[in-house]
Design goal:
Layout: H1 11-28, H2 51-56, H3 64-69, H4 75-79, H5 89-97, H6 112-119
């Protein structure tokens, strides 16, 4: 006689399976002990009232008068002025005598058909 055990209908078997999965996950899950921490010399804490913190602070305008005194940058002064390039006599003559022309037509690739047959064999049947 053969005995068959059916686990599909049993809620106890499902509960045991779920508990086993959680147990394995808890064991395998990474913990804080395995994580990498920054070396002590790489990070540095600065107290808010220290001199180093005061050096790092950007200037801020705290009074209305100081905010009104602050002016935006003039974009004309900050962008600079372009300097025109002065052409030499030879360049001026070349520009005066220049005639419009086009370049020669390029030759077709002699191996284009072979490459097309190799890359797309279904199109060449």
């Amino acid at each position: 006689m053969s005995a068959k055990i059916s686990l599909y209908g049993s809620s106890l078997a499902i509960a045991v399976s779920v508990a086993g999965i959680f147990a394995v996950a808890a064991i395998v899950a990474p913990t804080a002990g395995f994580s990498q921490t920054a070396p002590a010399e790489a990070s540095k804490s600065i107290k808010h009232s220290s001199d180093e913190a005061k050096k790092l602070k950007e200037p801020s305008f705290q009074t209305r008068e100081e905010r009104l005194k602050a002016k935006p940058l003039d974009w004309r002064l900050t962008s600079g002025k372009p300097k025109p390039r002065i052409l030499t006599e030879e360049e001026r003559k070349l520009l005066k005598n220049a005639k419009p022309e086009s370049s020669e037509v390029g030759k077709p690739d002699p191996k284009a058909e072979q490459e097309a047959r190799r890359l797309h064999p279904d199109d060449w049947k």
